[in-house]
Amino acid sequence: MLAELENLIQLQQADREIQRLEEEIAALPRRVAAIEEKLAGTKAAVEKARATIKADEANRRKLESQIQDHQQKISKYRDQSLEVKTNEQYRALMHEISFAEQDIRKLEDKILEGMLEVELNEKTLKSAEAELKEETAEIEKEKEEARRVTTRDQQELATLQSRRDALRSGIGADTLRHYDRVAKLRRYALAEARDHKCVACQVMLRPQMYNDVRTNQQILICDSCQRILYYIPPAEPEPAATATAPTQTAQAS
Questions:
Q1: In what order do the strands lie in the sheet with 197-198?
Q2: Strand 228-230 vs strand 190-194: parallel, antiparallel, or unpaired?
Q3: By three-state DSSP, how is residue 251 classified?
Q4: pLDDT at position 213, please?
Q5: What pLDDT score was predicted for residue 138?
Q6: Is residue 125 within 8 Å of residue 49, measured between CB atoms?
Q7: Which residues of the chain have pLDDT under 50?
Q8: Final residue of a domain: which of 117, 140, 168?
């Protein structure tokens, strides 16, 4: 194979691996950011559950304070009932006591409902805290893995970039310019010729062109997609194993 063509093939392999590594390195921070975003949502759920429980407790204290106010009113009305002079005044005080007792029952019902809400919110908080703990451990694991993979990829990238520079130095300037231009337009600049076609664009090659490509001794370009063509000879079939027939010895009877 022409040395320049071999360098081109190896250069394309290096360039594609470099692209893969660069994409992987760029993707790792995005993956960690997505996990951190999910973690932020779980943290918000924990804080919301805590705030709800705190609000429920504050509301319960408010209701208990209102009950105490009504109880004090009832006590005051009972004291006043001992001093009234008429039945009308007594009945009025009894009505006030009855209204206060009804309000107390309503407040007690609200407290009971609030207690049920607190119980539910505490379960929600416990679940959110467990999820937060699990996700925090997961993100630390992901960050450590991202650091490890990034370090590995950067080392491989540095090696490949050095190899790419060495390969480019073994390719003619005109050929290199063509390679760079086609790679920029079509992502890769070389294509295999197989079955009389360019594998990349599937356009048939002229018979003479295909025969010339098969020698791998020239820099030949596909007329359709402008990629540099090369040929991979088919693998030689493995020789079939020779079967040895067993010898049969005739025995006289």
A1: 197-198, 190-194, 228-230, 220-221
A2: parallel
A3: coil
A4: 97
A5: 83
A6: yes
A7: 242-253
A8: 168
Determine how many CB atoms are found less than 10 A away from the CB of residue 117. Answer: 16
Predicted local distance difference test score (pLDDT) of residue 251: 39
Q: Which single residue is written with the structure tokens 């304070």? A: 65
Q: Quickly tell me which residue has 């703990």 as its tokens.
A: 133
pLDDT at 249: 40
> Residues 22, 51: one domain?
yes
Sign, Cα dihedral of 122, 128, 132, 135 = positive
Quick one: DSSP state of residue 97?
H
What residues make up the domain containing 201? Answer: 187-230
Q: Find where tokens 């010729």 sit.
A: 193
DSSP character string of 188-236: --EEEEETTEETTT-PBPPHHHHHHHHHT-S-EE-TTT-PEEE--PPPP
Give which of 129, 24, 3, 118 is closest to 63, Cα–Cα.
Answer: 118
Residue 181 included in any domain? no
User: Could you say which DSSP state residue 239 is in?
Assistant: P
Within a domain: 237:
no
State the first-to-last Cα distance of the chain, in angstroms, to the nearest integer.
Answer: 67
Residue 247 lies in a domain: no
104, 7: one domain: yes
* 59's tokens: 């509301």
| Residue 93 burial (CB count, 10 A) | 20
The amino acid at 115: M
What pLDDT shows up at residue 129? Answer: 87
The whole-angstrom separation of Cα 187 and Cα 160 is 18
Cα–Cα distance list, 19 to 24, 120, 178, 200, 201 (Å): 9, 52, 19, 19, 22
